Amino acid sequence: MSNSVTNTARLLGAALRALLVLTLVTGVVYPLVVTGVAQGLFPGKANGSEIEADGKVVGSSLIGQSYDLPPKKGQETPEPDLKWFQGRPANGLGANSINTRYGLILSGATNLAADSGAVDGACPAEPEDGTLCAQVLAARAAVVKDNSVAGYTVEPSEVPADAVTSSGSGLDPAVSPQYAALQVHRVAARNGLPVAAVEKLVEEHTQGRVLGFIGEPRVNVLELNIALKDLAAKR
């Protein structure tokens, strides 16, 4: 009996010591080392890839946000503020989400199949409400209407795919150079800026493929709008 109690106490003591050592190593030492290395080698990424403007953090280069007008009384979906470059649709976020200045509640995709609403492999002129075809055609019509200004008309065939479809998360921070270029005339007109100056902003903020072959060229919408704000303020 005495030996059994002694062995049990010895095993419990060894288990307790192992628990304390592992807790110290994995719960204190390892996190501190990883955090120190991250802060030392790439602090920007370690801190969330924050973007600052006027001395304040306004967002992250990894997460998109909306550029909308303040919602009117009783309005469920706010209208886009067309003086800014607009990002991709965020249909997967749902009507109960908030995506303003990174006050995020949720993210997600629409989960609609590629042929949702299609007939014989193509979207009909009047697709069923709630289908992907209905969303894409409505988004395309809005892009054409919003970006057609005096002296510049957008044709439906000119609207790129990222202007009418949301990403898997609904929080894609970038648009294609084609979509950014399509918005140039509208942004220039709304801000009283020369078209050439706004075109130059888009060109300066166009990022190429990673390592020259990974991904697609892109334009970070938040960074572009910050530069647009600075340009408009100078004028």
Description of the molecule:
By secondary structure, this protein is mostly helical. The chain has two domains: 2-44; 64-234, no CATH class. The protein has seven helices and five strands, in the order ααββαβαααββα. The strands form two sheets. A three-stranded antiparallel sheet has the order 3-5-4. It has a two-stranded antiparallel ribbon with strand order 1-2. The protein is elongated, with a radius of gyration of 25 Å. The relative contact order is 0.11.
Overall residue-averaged pLDDT value: 88
Number of domains: 2
Please outline the major beta sheet. Answer: 3 strands, antiparallel
As a whole number of angstroms, the C-alpha radius of gyration is 25 Å
Silhouette: elongated
Helix percentage: 40-55%
The proportion of residues in beta strands is 5-15%
DSSP strand tally: 5
Provide the descriptors you would attach to this structure in a database record.
single chain, 235 residues, mainly alpha, 3-stranded antiparallel β-sheet, two-stranded antiparallel ribbon, 7 helices, 5 strands, 42% helix
